[in-house]
Amino acid sequence: ASIAAEAAQIAGVAKVITVARAENAHALAAVLAPQIAQLAAGYSHVLLPSTTFGKDIAPCVAALLGVAQVSDLMAVDGPHAFKRPIYAGNAIISVTAPADRTVVATVRPASWPATGNGGSAAIEAATVDVALPTHTRFKGLQSGKSD
């Protein structure tokens, strides 16, 4: 609830969708991806950050939607045209996604300036009725010690 309230205050955000399920207590791509894919119906773009978290979920969502994922967007040239780095950032290429398909992409947050607050988006609780996989489950989290 607190994260949704923070997201609703970001300038330019029109709506924040929340999903409350016990299975979401631990962020697992195999569990979150089917829910995100179902919520993507009616949206043209599904964007996730180019972080380990986003890069874990995005390919799963793209596969469930039957589309190719676009990675590491650093510029937008049009609704389906983007620029992304290749060769460890030594070259930039233009990528065009099919206009008739949902775009699933990871976005490099450092490529854009931070947006301010001042928004007042509606927060909508959604119910996602989708079967979740049973082959993946959270077992625990451990941190190793290092000198």
Task: Give an account of the 3D structure.
α2 crosses α3. The model has no long low-confidence stretch (mean pLDDT 93). The chain is built from three helices and eight strands; from the N terminus they run αβαβαββββββ. The chain has 147 residues and is of the alpha/beta class. 22% of the residues lie in helices and 27% in strands. The strands form three sheets. It has a three-stranded parallel β-sheet, with helices on one face. The protein has a three-stranded antiparallel β-sheet with strand order 4-5-6, with no helix packed on it.
Q: N- to C-terminal separation?
A: 37 Å
Query: What is the average of the pLDDT values?
Result: 93
Specify the overall morphology.
Answer: globular
Structural class comes to alpha/beta
β-strand number:
8
Q: Can you write the helix and strand succession as a string?
A: HEHEHEEEEEE
In the sheet with the most strands, the strands line up as 2-7-3
Number of helices: 3
Helix content: 10-25%
Main beta-sheet annotation: 3 strands, parallel
Radius of gyration: 17 Å
| β-sheet strand percentage | 25-35%
Q: Which residue ranges are poorly predicted, with pLDDT under 50 across at least 5 consecutive positions?
A: none
